[in-house]
Amino acid sequence: MAVKLQTLKDIRNYLLLELSEMYSEKESESISDIIISKVFKISRTEYLLNRDEIISDSKKRELVYRYCSDLKTGKPLQYVTGETLFYNCIIRVNKGVLIPRPETEELADLIVKENRGFEGRITDIGTGSGCIAIALAANIPLAKVTGIDISSAAIKSAVNNALLNKVRVSFIKADLFNVAPPEILNTDILVSNPPYVLDSEKQFMKKNVLNFEPRKALFVPDNDPLKFYRGILISADQILKPGGTVYFEINEAKGRQVLELLASHRYHAIRVMKDINGKDRIVKGRKYE
Known about the structure:
This protein is α/β, with parallel strands linked by helices. It has eleven helices and eleven strands. The strands form three sheets. The chain has a seven-stranded mixed sheet, with helices on both faces. The protein has a two-stranded antiparallel ribbon with strand order 1-2. The radius of gyration is 21 Å and the shape is elongated. The N and C termini lie far apart (68 Å).
C-alpha cells in the first residue's frame, strides 16, 4: 500500500483525505468515525483516548482500505459496512433491500407513540429489511407483528434482522395483491412504505442510490403513482378490521392524492403529516366500522 497506517489517528486522517473528494467535511468526518467504530469496535471517546496507539492488526488495516475503496465507487456506507441503525435497532442491509431512511424512522416513531401498550395485530406490507416491523416489535412488545414481502431475499434479510435484535416477528413471503395470507386477517394496524418515487424523479437522485439500491423498491410509473397504495387498500378491505388504522409513508408531492384515495375507500380521521423537513410524508386513516 502507498499509505502506511500506523495509528488510529493515521487511519482517520487517511479516510478524511480520501473521502474529501466525494463528501463534505462534515460527512467525511461522520463516515470516518463510523468506519473506525465498526472496524476497531470502539466508541468516539475511546478513539480520542487511544488515537496514538499503534495498530498491529494488519487485517483491520486492510479492511479500512477496502471500505474506503468501496466508498469511493459511490457505494453507500450502509452497504459497505453491511448494517445501519434504525430506531435503536441494528439492521443489516445488502443490495436486495433498501437502506432505511430517517423519514421511515419518523413513521415508526409515530406508530410507537400512538400505540403504547397495544396488544393487537400489526402488519407491515413490503417489509424489505424488516426495519419497521422489527422497530415496532421492539417498542410495542405485546403486539403481534407480521411483515410481508414478495422478495425471498428481503424475507431472508428480515428474518436474520429479527434474530439479531431478539424480537418476535413473523415474516411471510407473499404477493398480497394476489391472495392475502390467512395469518394477517383481522389486522388492527396496517403500515407500509411502498415504492413511491416517480420514474421522472430519477434525474434528481444521487448516483449512489440509483447505482446500488433495488429499483423495484423505489420507483413507480409517472402515469400510476399510487398503484401500490391502491392495491394495499383493496387488500385492506379483506385483512384490516373495521376501525383499524392504516399508516403510509408517501411521496412528498402526493399527500392530497393519497388522502383522497383513503377517503374513496371509506376511511375517516385522515391526516397528512409532515416530516422533520416540513414535507408531507405520512398519511394516516381509520377504516369505518
